[in-house]
Amino acid sequence: MKNFELQNKKFSISILIIILLLGFVLRFWQLGKVPLSPDWDEVALGYDAYSIIHTGRDEFGIFMPPVLRSFDDYKPALYAYLAVPTVAIFGLTVFAVRLPSVVMGILGVFAIYFLVKELFENRERAPNEKNYSEILALIAAFLMAVSPWQIQFSRIAFETNTGLTFNLLVGLFFLKGLKKPWMLSFATLFAGLNLAVYQSERVFTPLLALALVIIYWKELFAVSKKYLIMCLIVGLIVSLPTVIYVFTHVDSLERAAGTSIVSQNTQALTNNYIRLKNDKASHDIIGLLIDNRRVIFAKEIISGYLVHFNPNWLFLEGDNDRHHAPGMGIMYLVDLPFLLIGFYLFTFRKFKKKTKYFVFSWLFLAPVPAAFTIDVPHAVRTMNLLPMLLIFATLGYFFVFDFFRVYQRKSSLRKKVSWGVCIIIVALAAFNFIYYLNQYFVQQNYFNAEDWQYGYAQAIPQIESLQNQYQKIIVSDKTPMDESYMFFYFT
């Protein structure tokens, strides 16, 4: 029996290694060439990493800043620090700037494997189904490894991918820490670091931490106080530089204010102003209540929240062209029915209550940061939604294949039907995957070149060849040139 379990464990480890290798290839292949050009945020992070290597300061001369002023959008600085080793080794190149995101993407695949295994361990099932959580963990890791959403942001220097991985590690180490308390400090470590990763994480990660404390209140406070105090100390030390900077530099909230629906003169507000004038003129008391600006904001926030569960956005269209492969959404269409099946099963079947609370809390908190902003739905600000959607898809795939595994035993006809259905599912999934590979690695550079600011870096050698003919070369910061000056630093 022990020998069988050991062989089974070795087999699982082998499958996981294959999944990780697949994920690595999908993220590493042609890393500096697809997408074909860095966007201005990528070159800004790369140049700040380069500047920190050589001077210890960012482009504005600030020594080891926890927040980068950059384009006056005040980027959390952690990604630039993660890029310091790769830029130091490979030079100031697109490959070097994107490489930390690849590492974080692979770590995310690894993290969801262990998180799913932890969540579904000891589920109340038949005694002969001991490998249930292991199978689910492998399916979830595979789905993450081939996920268009995760691949998209694992191959570019967008901080959201790092934020997602850190949140997975927060959840994982929190659950592990309830059994081995010394691990709780790692949960607070990654939670604290996440405040220096991306703006959305400053909202989502504290909400996630609060949800975990509420859900596992009894287990957490059964832990020895020395471990809880250690957690608080680690969290404070790690998060303090960012917190101090945010509270002492009003400008650091400029980006958040600039994308907030409250600070924007949206069409909804314009229409509301007209209706409000008519309500006042006609003394319409009900109209004055309904057309109140606060009511409009509430409706916009609710709409901005709910739109992130729109299947059209998730599976068909996506949003900004830099956030998805052309001609498809940010998830595979073939996953949709399995996701719905998994959601139903998870909701109504017998799973541990706290596992349900964990998953649903994460799921419903993930769109909160984006709900208060413009340009929704937004794949960058809501990337934390991905793991829970993949968990539902994982349950759906497991249930369907497990159903046909049992169904086919009863007759030869059922066996043929079962094999036929399973082959069709695999064929559809393979077709969807191949279609995605073509859209991302082949079509993207053609269709989305403008969105990736292609031409900015390519124009610089030509400009340099002409500079001796002119006293001054002026680089515009107006559309469509925008922040193109940074490409001169980067090149």
What do you see in this structure?
About 1% of the residues have low confidence. Helix 3 crosses helix 4, helix 9 runs antiparallel to helix 18 and helix 13 runs antiparallel to helix 15. The chain has a two-stranded antiparallel ribbon. The protein contains 23 helices and 2 strands. The longest helix has 36 residues. The protein is globular. The chain is mainly alpha-helical and 491 residues long.
How are the SSEs ordered, and which strands pair?
Elements: H1 2-28, H2 40-55, E1 67-68, E2 75-76, H3 78-90, H4 94-119, H5 132-145, H6 148-154, H7 160-177, H8 184-194, H9 201-215, H10 217-220, H11 225-248, H12 254-259, H13 267-282, H14 285-290, H15 293-306, H16 311-317, H17 335-348, H18 353-365, H19 368-371, H20 386-407, H21 412-447, H22 456-466, H23 485-490
Antiparallel strand pairs: 1-2
Helix pairs in contact: 1-4, 1-5, 2-3, 2-4, 3-4, 4-5, 4-6, 4-7, 5-20, 7-8, 7-9, 8-11, 9-18, 13-15, 17-20, 20-21
The biggest sheet amounts to: 2 strands, antiparallel
Q: From N to C, what is the helix and strand string? A: HHEEHHHHHHHHHHHHHHHHHHHHH
Kindly name the structural category: mainly alpha
Through-space gap between termini: 61 Å
What would you call the shape?
A: globular
Mean pLDDT: 90
Radius of gyration: 25 Å
Flag low-confidence runs.
124-128
Number of helices: 23
Estimate what percentage of residues fall within beta strands: under 5%
Describe the strand arrangement of the main beta sheet, using strand numbers. 1-2
Helix coverage percent: 55-70%
The count of β-strands is: 2
